[in-house]
Input
Amino acid sequence: MNTSNSIGIVSAQRAHFDTPLTFQSGAVLPRYDLVYETYGTLNAGKSNAILVCHALSGHHHVAGYYADDPKNVGWWDNMIGPGKPIDTRKFFVVGLNNLGGCHGSTGPSSPDPETGKPYGASFPVVTVEDWVESQARLADMLGIRQFAAVTGGSLGAMQALQWSLSFPDRVRHVLAIATAPRLTAENIAFNDVARNAILTDPDFHGGNYYEHSAVPVRGLRLARMLGHITYLSDDVMADKFGRELLSGKPNYGYGIEFEIESYLRYQGDKFAAYFDANTYLLMTKALDYFDPARKCGDDLDKAFAVARANFLVLSFTTDWRFSPERSRTLVKSLLHNHLNVSYCEITSTHGHDSFLMQHTHYHEVMHAYLERIASEFSE
Amino acid sequence: MNTSNSIGIVSAQRAHFDTPLTFQSGAVLPRYDLVYETYGTLNAGKSNAILVCHALSGHHHVAGYYADDPKNVGWWDNMIGPGKPIDTRKFFVVGLNNLGGCHGSTGPSSPDPETGKPYGASFPVVTVEDWVESQARLADMLGIRQFAAVTGGSLGAMQALQWSLSFPDRVRHVLAIATAPRLTAENIAFNDVARNAILTDPDFHGGNYYEHSAVPVRGLRLARMLGHITYLSDDVMADKFGRELLSGKPNYGYGIEFEIESYLRYQGDKFAAYFDANTYLLMTKALDYFDPARKCGDDLDKAFAVARANFLVLSFTTDWRFSPERSRTLVKSLLHNHLNVSYCEITSTHGHDSFLMQHTHYHEVMHAYLERIASEFSE
Output
């Protein structure tokens, strides 16, 4: 681990909310906790805050490391820290674990205060709008009226986009990376297969597996294996794994033979050991439902008519999950609304995962854009 | 059903082979049956035979329909019949169910004569080379020394290609449609997830589910759902299903909501009701292993040095499972060997499935090429 320009030791905090939250579904959560981390210092004008929203399997531990677990480095540590694109000497960065998550915030595996047992299947389906609502309450608690920027990749970027719609005057810049204004049928199809793997696992017990001391490991593993295929590009898979056989020759059996199989099983096993299956279901549904145009007669231009933020939209050439074409659709709608938009299509072999990678051009673009944001409040 | 230019009523036949077949794996099958169908008439010179090889879930019922089941139309009936591209007034067409299949030929669900119980997990892993070997024996039995053509799509086309390598003087034309000279890491990855869904289904019982009166329905269903995503294009999914919600509005639950989900579940359920899980495993492994270049130091040019056939290679623009680029790689190697090659990239929105569709340009190209083949033996 290179700690030279790390934000260093960080620690998670917990915020408790007693005001009931009504979800898009109509369900009400009477009270809940959000676990979050902050890096840097909120300036006197409270104008330098950046909210980082996480994607499907992310959480509040975005940068730095823990004193008692120095190997546990935040998932976007290459982007956030002193001297990094999101420079913690200038910005006050907030990361949280979303509602419904499994990293400390209230979610399906949390005890329902009414019963004392985990919510399980009774935890409501959460949408991107619901998350943004809960994030705004966290911002209130932190004294942040307006974010300098809200950012994230993939599902995280959808939350950033939603900020510009739900709270147009509370976000100055949206940095939307590797995302889409809504899923395609193919995207939904992949999510559906992943969900089905979990839902039909006999250890799922209708979502109440906690009571059965069971974990739907088979389903979670399959979901993650499938996910990984869509995160990588065909090219990077060919480069990393090709058709290499682990033992150098075919075994003519059904065990692991090709290196790509070994990689997928490893990723699947690792994920199934720590991630909550109900959270996985919930996150994929939030992806499926996100569709700002839907309420505006499928007109994305109309949907963004309320937005006031400035936008940086970034896509990656080999991302076939959320292809550059989808970012361009978004950019077009933003431009039709006379919004300030910067768009860059980054050449990268790493597919959708590129947004998490240390990539020179990508980081340079982020750095330059964030310097501009910093200049707005430092002057 | 349009029966106007159908070959009409057909019936399956069964051939029994008593000469042991040694597989690439070293396993020996002492005796086996192949179920097949033929259409048209073998000419006096036995020079007008076309072998049609099937893909993953195909079988011997390639064209026509059964007297007692007129709705059961062959899987390539739009291509084969009087006046159709593979014109049964000119050609003698042979279709068979491959060894390891589940439509009548000896496979994992067949009784092992040694034990009287289904082979199950003890049925050997079969390769494309093994299939071609068994197909050559069927040709011997039918008195066909040399095929005018061997054809198929996808995995079927791999068998057609293998014919030109295993029996260079027994095939005059290879018509390889929607295929690749070998799978990529991404292709293998999808197969691996599908196999894992089956292998980890508690009803799989290590492949001996027959004895447990069980069927790994959950695994088969997931495998087929995933397969269907890769057979279709993003475009055709968007056109056919888009983001349409079955009930017109979100239900905020984990049931079927989007039309694409309904389609996938229907396809999954239908498939799981009739297809054998061990056959599915075996077919996907045959796909993974197919790699003529492997034995030639990864040099595809060298691999095709033995080939003598003429080639028609067809790909489809939106096929992302076996993209046109992969066909072009194949074409290049064939040309490097000074072989006669015709190549056409067909504009189609239907992805990999295009090879099964009624498509004017595609059928015109097939028709023209097959007329040329017919002219060689009719003159």
